Amino acid sequence: MNDNEVTLSNDRAWHSAITLADGEHIWLRGYEVTDLMTHATFAEVVLLLHQGELPSPGVQKLMNALLIASAECRVDARSALAARAAASGNRRGLEAAIAAGVLAIGDAHGGAGAPCLEMIAHAVARVQRESIPLEQAAAQIITEAKTAGQRLPGLGLRAQTTDPRVATLFRLAAEARVAGDGIAFMRALERQAREHIAYLPINLDGAIAAILYDLGFAPAFAKALYIIAHVAGLSAHVLEEYAREQPLRIKIPVEYDGPKPRAVPRS
Amino acid sequence: MNDNEVTLSNDRAWHSAITLADGEHIWLRGYEVTDLMTHATFAEVVLLLHQGELPSPGVQKLMNALLIASAECRVDARSALAARAAASGNRRGLEAAIAAGVLAIGDAHGGAGAPCLEMIAHAVARVQRESIPLEQAAAQIITEAKTAGQRLPGLGLRAQTTDPRVATLFRLAAEARVAGDGIAFMRALERQAREHIAYLPINLDGAIAAILYDLGFAPAFAKALYIIAHVAGLSAHVLEEYAREQPLRIKIPVEYDGPKPRAVPRS
Amino acid sequence: MNDNEVTLSNDRAWHSAITLADGEHIWLRGYEVTDLMTHATFAEVVLLLHQGELPSPGVQKLMNALLIASAECRVDARSALAARAAASGNRRGLEAAIAAGVLAIGDAHGGAGAPCLEMIAHAVARVQRESIPLEQAAAQIITEAKTAGQRLPGLGLRAQTTDPRVATLFRLAAEARVAGDGIAFMRALERQAREHIAYLPINLDGAIAAILYDLGFAPAFAKALYIIAHVAGLSAHVLEEYAREQPLRIKIPVEYDGPKPRAVPRS
Amino acid sequence: MNDNEVTLSNDRAWHSAITLADGEHIWLRGYEVTDLMTHATFAEVVLLLHQGELPSPGVQKLMNALLIASAECRVDARSALAARAAASGNRRGLEAAIAAGVLAIGDAHGGAGAPCLEMIAHAVARVQRESIPLEQAAAQIITEAKTAGQRLPGLGLRAQTTDPRVATLFRLAAEARVAGDGIAFMRALERQAREHIAYLPINLDGAIAAILYDLGFAPAFAKALYIIAHVAGLSAHVLEEYAREQPLRIKIPVEYDGPKPRAVPRS
Fold first, then answer.
1. Which chains does C contact via 3+ CB–CB distances below 8 A?
2. Which of B15, B18, B81, B95 is best to mutate for the D interface (most D CBs within 10 A)?
3. Per the CB < 8 Å rule, is C232 touching A45?
4. Beta carbons within 10 angstroms of residue B67's beta carbon
5. How many CB atoms lie within 10 A of CB B147?
6. Does residue B105 sit in the same domain as residue B207?
7. What is the pLDDT of residues B146-159, one digit of tens each?
8. pLDDT in tens, D63-105
9. I want to staple C115 with a disulfide (CB 3.0 to 4.6 A). Which of B92, B127, C73, C153 is the partner?
10. Which chain C residue's Cα is nearest to A93?
11. Closest Cα of chain A to B215: distance in Å?
C-alpha cells in the first residue's frame, strides 16, 4: 500500500455498473472474468461491457464480423498516417502513436456511424408516428437532404463500387435473426437515393449503423465500436513502422505561399 | 540523408503560408526566426503564426495577458486531473501526459470561447443588418436563449462572483485601443442577463472571445489560444506529479451498482 | 475523387505487408476480409494482423482469453480516471477521452509486459548458452535483482494474493499445447522469489508475457495487446460517464504548499 | 454547485505548489494572476510555473527567444504531419489534432534536449570530481561515444550546415549574463567532435539543453519547453489545414509486399 494514496470520502463514492472485484475475484457486469475467459470470445465481452448482457451465438458471430470489418486499416488512411507519423518521431511510445491514430477518427473518418444511427432512429420514429411505410420515410429523407444540400450519412463510397463487407454483414445479421428496421431502412434509403439522386451504395459506416440499431445500441456506440476494432489495425501499423522504417523517412514537397522575407520592426 | 525517404511528386505539393527555410535561414510568415528571437516576444509570435502579422505594442501586451490568463490550471481542473492520472501510469511519457490533459479541453472545459465568439459575430451582424443598438441585440439574444432554455456561452461562473481576470483583460484592451463591438456586446449581454435572468458575470471564456473578436480572429482561434497557454500549466502539473508523487496514489471509493454475480451460460 | 489530393511519386512508395485492396476486395495478410468475417473471430484477426498467420483453434481460444483478461478496467485505474476526466471536460470527443485513457498506459500501468518478455528471452538465451536448468537461471536473476535493488517485472501484486486470471491463462495455454519455456521460467522465478525474497505471485503482466513468449511474439506486442483489449474497457467507462454523470463532478481537496502571496516586481 | 460532485476526504488532500485561488483572487506561485497579466510576459510565466521564480529582464528576453525558436514547425515535420493527418479525419477536434502532433514529439523528434542536458550535467560533475578541464571531459565523452558506437545528443544536423538559431540563443544568453558551464561544454564538445569525428554542429536541442543547464533546470524541462512552444506552431498548422484543405487529400502510393491472396481454413 502506497503511503501517498488519496482516499475519497465514502459518502460521495463514484458509481459504476461495469466492474467489481474483491481480493480473489473480478466480475465484469456480474460474470467472473475467468468464466468469461474460458467460455466467451472477446467480441462477446465487448458487447457485454457496452450493453450489459452476453449475446446469443448468432449475435456473437455478427459481433466478431463487425469488429473484423472495422479493424481493417490501410496505410494511407488518415488514422494510420497520424499513427505512423507519431511513431516516426516517438519510437518508444507505442501508446502515444496508437492514441495519435485514434485522434484522427472523427467526423470525416469513421465518424458517419453515429449520425447514421441517429438518422435511422429518427426515420423509424417517423414511420411509427405517421404510420407510413419505411420506403416513404426514406423518400422524404432523400428529398429533405436534396433540398438542404446535405450529404446522407452511411451512403456513398469514394469510388462508387460496393464495399464487400456490407453484404457479408447483412447476411450474418439475417443468420443471427436480428435484421430489422435498421437494415430495412438503409436498403430503402439506397433504393430511393438511386432513383432520386444517384447510385450511392450503403457504405461500411451505414451497414454498421443499421446493424447496431437493430441490436438496440445508442448512436455513441457506433464510433466506440470502430475505435475498439481499429486500434488493432493501428497497432499493427505502428509495430510495422518500428520494425521496418527509420525515424526520418517522410519528405513532402511543400510550396510556401506566404509573405516574402521582411524585417521585424524595431519598437 | 535517409535512404528510406519518400518524396511526393512535385506537381502535387502541399501549400502552406507558415514557414519557409533554406539551409541557412528559417522564416516564420516572412520574418527571420532569429530576428523574431531578438526583437519579439513569444506572445507576438503566437499572433503572427495565427494571424499573419505582428501586433502593435499595446496588442502585444494584451496578447501576453490573454496567454497568462489561460495558462492558469488548478489541480482539480479536469485537464490537470487527466494529465496527472496519465502521468501516474506513464512516468516517462511527458508528451503523453500533456496530450491527455489537452484532450480534456472541449465543450465543457475551456470550450465556450468559440461558440461565444460565434454568438458575438452573429449579434454584431444583426446590429448592422437591422440597424438596431447593441443593447437591443443583446436583449433579443437573452430572450431567445430563455425561450429555448439554452445557456449563454461566456456568461456565468460556478461561484457567482467575478473572475478577476476579466476586468484586467478589458482594461488592457482599452489601453491597446482595440476595445470594440466584441467587448461592448458582452457588457450589454451581461446587463441584459442581470435584468432578465440573473447576475451572470462575464467569465474568462467570454472575455477572451470578446477581445479576440475585436482583434479580428475567427472563432476557432479561441480554443487554440486556450490550448497553447494551458499547455504551460499542464506541463508544470505533470512535472510536479513526477517530482513529488509515487505512481499509485489515487484511490477512489467506487460503489458498484451493476448486475449481481452470475454464471456464463455454456453454449 | 478530391481535387486536392496529393500523390507521392511511385518510385518511393511506402511498403506494407498488412492490407491490400482493389475496388472489390480487401485482403488482410492475404485473407479476404469477408472470408475472415465469416470464419474467424476478432481475436484471431488481432493475431493475424500482428503475427501474419491465423492461429490454431486452441490458440484462438487462448487469444480470446488474453484479450478478455486485459479488457478489464476498474473505475479507479489510472487509465479509466484519465479517460473519465477527459470525458468530463470534452463531452463530444469519445475518441479524445479514449485516447487520454490509452496515454495512461505506460511503465507504471500495463507496461510490465514488455520488460518481462525481454527478461524471459534473456533468461532462456542464458539457459541455452550456458546449458543450465531454467531453475538456476531464475535463481541467478533473483540474485542479480536483489543485488541491484531492482524490482522483477511480472511478479507481485499490490495486495499479495493471487490474480485469478493467471491460473486460467496458464490452463488454457496448456490446453492449446503452447505452454513452453516462457511459462516454465515464470513459474521458476516465482518459486525462487518465494525462497529468496518473499511470496511475489505472478501477476497478469507476467502471465501475458510468459504466454506471448511461448507464442513467439516480440516484446513490443505485450503492450500492444494490453492497449487493444483495454480500449474496450475504457470505451465502456467513457460511455458510462457520458450517460450517468454531469460535466463538473470531480472535486479534490488541494492543499497549497507553495510561496505566500507576493507582488510582481516592476521592471 | 453540481449535485454529482465527489469530495475527497480532507485528511488525504493532494498537495501542490502551483496555484491558489479564493473567490476573488488567483495566485500563480504566489503572484496574483492579474498582476502577472499586467506586468509580465507569458515567457516569464512559463519560467515561473516551472521554476517557481520570475526571471531577470535578460533571462526574460532569453526565454522568449527559446520559446520562439521551438515554436517553428515545418509542414513536413512529423509532429505537423501527425497533427494535419488527424485534422483531416477529425475536422471538429482541434484539441485532438494538436494532441496528435504533441504525441509525435519523442526520442526521434524534439527529444534530444533531455538526454543532452543529462550528458552536460554528467560531464560537469566529472570536471568537478576529477578536477579536469571541460575540454578534457568533452574529449573523453567523444572517445566513449565512438567506442560504444553511440550518437551524441545535441550535435549534428541532417544537412550539415549550422542552425541559425544556435548563435542567436548563445548571444542572448551571454547578454543575459547566464552563459556558464552548459554552453562552454557544448562548444568544447563541438570542437572535440570536429577533431576526432566530423563537423557536427551544435543543433537546436543542444543549444536549448546548454542554456537550460545554465539556468538551473532539470532535464525533463527540455522536452516540456519544446512541447509548450511547439503547440503554437502545431495549432497554426491545424487551423491552416481546416481553412485551406478538404478532408481527403492525402494519397500515398503503397506497395503491398505481404502474403498472396489465400483462403481462410475452415475449422
1. A, B, D
2. B95
3. yes
4. 27
5. 8
6. yes
7. 999 998 999 987 66
8. 999 999 999 988 888 999 999 999 999 988 999 999 999 999 9
9. C153
10. C106
11. 20
Pairing relationship of beta strands B14-16 and A254-256 according to DSSP bridges: parallel
Q: Which residue of B has its CA nearest to A249?
A: B5
C136 CA to chain A: closest CA distance, Å?
A: 31
Q: Residue A41 belongs to what domain range?
A: 15-54
D107 with A96: Cβ contact below 8 A: no
Is the distance from CB of A237 to CB of A223 less than 8 angstroms?
A: no
Containing H/E element for A156? none
What ipTM score was computed for the predicted complex, to two decimals? 0.93
Residues C46 and C150 in one domain: no
Query: Cα–Cα distance between B221 and B117 in angstroms, integer?
Result: 10
- The predicted model scores a pTM of 0.94
Decide if B82 and C86 are in contact by the 8 Å CB cutoff.
yes
Rounded to whole angstroms, how far apart are CA atoms C113 and D216? 36
- Count CA within 13 A, CB hemisphere, residue D81: 27
pLDDT in tens, B198-233: 999 999 999 999 999 999 999 999 999 999 999 999
**How close B75 comes to chain A (CA, Å)?**
14
Cα A153 to chain centroid, rounded:
13
Q: Which residues contact C188 (CB under 8 A, 6 or more apart)?
A: C134, C135, C137, C138
Q: Do B254 and A10 touch (CB under 8 A)?
A: no
Specify whether A99 is located in the same domain as A151: yes
pLDDT, tens digit, 9 for 90 and up, residues A244-257: 988 766 667 788 99
Mark the ranges of chain D whose per-residue pLDDT is less than 70.
1-12, 158-160, 248-251, 267
C45:A158 CB<8 A:
no
**Mutate: best of C28, C246, C254, C260, partner D, most D CBs <10 A:** C254
On the CB side of A28, how many CA atoms lie within 13 Å of its CA? 29
Nearest Cα residue in chain A from C33: A69
d(C-alpha D155, C-alpha D232), whole Å? 25
Collect all residues with Cβ–Cβ distance below 8 Å to D128 and sequence separation of at least 6. none
Partner chains of A (3+ C-beta pairs under 8 Å)? B, C, D
Residue A253 lies inside a defined structural domain of this protein: no
Residue C66 sits in the same domain as residue C145: yes
Residue contact D6–A8, C-beta within 8 A: yes
pLDDT at residue B143 is higher than 90: yes
Yes or no, beta carbons of A254 and B15 under 8 Å apart: yes
Which residue in chain B is spatially nearest to D222 when comparing CA positions? B94
Low-confidence ranges of chain A (pLDDT < 50): 1-10
Give the helix ranges, DSSP H, for A42-158. 42-51, 57-71, 78-89, 94-102, 113-130, 134-148
Q: Exposed (0-12), middle (13-18) or buried (19+): which is D191, by Cβ within 10 Å?
A: middle
Element (H, E) at B15: strand B14-16
CA atoms within 13 A on the CB side of A30: 14
Q: How many domains does chain D have?
A: 2
Q: Which residue from D minimizes the CA distance to C19?
A: D256
- Cα gap D191→D202, rounded to integer Å: 10
Q: Residue A240 corresponds to which cell in the numbers above? A: 510495422
| Nearest in space to A188 (alpha carbons), one of A202, A167, A174 | A202
State the smallest CA–CA distance between residue A131 and chain D in angstroms. 37
Spell out the residues 6+ positions from residue B118 whose beta carbon is closer than 8 angstroms to its own: B219
In a domain, C2, yes or no: no
Q: Which of D21, D33, D105 sits opposite B69 (nearest CB)?
A: D33
Based on the domain organization, do B94 and B157 belong to the same domain? yes
**Is C88's CB within 8 Å of B78's CB?**
yes
Given a cut of 70, the residues of chain C with pLDDT beneath it are: 1-12, 158-160, 248-251, 267
Are B111 and B208 found together in one domain? yes
